[in-house]
Amino acid sequence: MKFPLSLTFLRYFFSAGQAKSISKAAKENFVSQSAISQAITKLEALLGKQLITHEKNRFQLTSDGVLLLEKCKQLFTQFAEIEDAFHEAEGVFKGKLSFACTHSFALSLLPRHLGRLSHMWPDIEPVLRFGHTGTVVELVKKGDVDFGIVLDNEDFSSFDCREIYKGEYRLYQAKKTPKQAIQRFILSEERKEVSLLRRHLHAAGIDMSSEMEVSSWEVIASLAEQGLGIGFLPDYIVGKRALAVYDCLLPPIPYRLLAIFSKNRALPRNARLFIDLMCEP
Length: 281
What we know:
GO terms for molecular function: DNA-binding transcription factor activity; transcription cis-regulatory region binding. InterPro entries: LysR_HTH_N, LysR_subst-bd, WH-like_DNA-bd_sf, WH_DNA-bd_sf. By secondary structure, the protein is of the alpha/beta class. The chain has three domains: 7-72, Winged helix-like DNA-binding domain superfamily/Winged helix DNA-binding domain (Arc Repressor Mutant, subunit A); 88-166 and 257-279, D-Maltodextrin-Binding Protein, domain 2; 168-251, 3-Layer(aba) Sandwich (D-Maltodextrin-Binding Protein, domain 2), CATH 3.40.190. Helix content is 44%, strand content 21%. The protein has ten helices and nine strands. It has helices at 7-19, 22-29, 33-47, 63-90, 103-108, 110-120, 133-142, 192-203, 217-225, 269-279; strands at 95-101, 124-130, 147-151, 160-174, 184-187, 210-213, 230-234, 243-245, 254-261. Strands 1, 2, 3, 4, 5, 6, 7, 8 and 9 form a nine-stranded mixed sheet that branches. Helix 1 (7-19) crosses helix 2, helix 1 (7-19) crosses helix 3 and helix 1 crosses helix 4. The termini are far apart.
């Protein structure tokens, strides 16, 4: 028996395909997992194609499923643009806003921006994805989110970019750092800013023989706060932590936080609004 093509079925399939999870799709659409599974089964019957592998405890699209996911992405992008056009004519901001960012940004700066957004435009529904910079970039490339927020320490020339924040990398220590920890440096993986720090400390004759490498700004800040060493991190991470600048006459090492988005797709209206809001002082 064939079933009529349903936008609801396509929406459920699209949610599951993007999240790679039936349970997450169910939560996103406020329905049961059974409703998501049945929608996918009915789509398979209608199209005469297997869309997922149907392996227990594993969600994986077939090649036909990948094709349909891409078509659904185009379809729902068009619907979003139609909604944007009519909402703009009415002066209304509502609907989804999807973006990705790192955990450090989410914990440090994002709450303030989301608070302002919620106060000004309560009908906008943010959909957030988190990950390291590589994950954020891939989500933007695939069109799974409207835009991403990243630290400007890579080449993002393939994207359109807006600067939303700028500051400096600094060395921080606990207000009462034990003597044995004064010369222990807590650094992220080797990148441009870390190389600049090394050159400066070497020129200043400061010993860096004791180091700890940590791949999370938030963890670096927490370890420094506990007196386990001198942490090197961007200043936006510090917030209300009990940290003081470690004074070694470090020259300015600037950074920027960027909103990145595709050059090939129109940026949705809600995304433009939120980026503009984050750019405000």
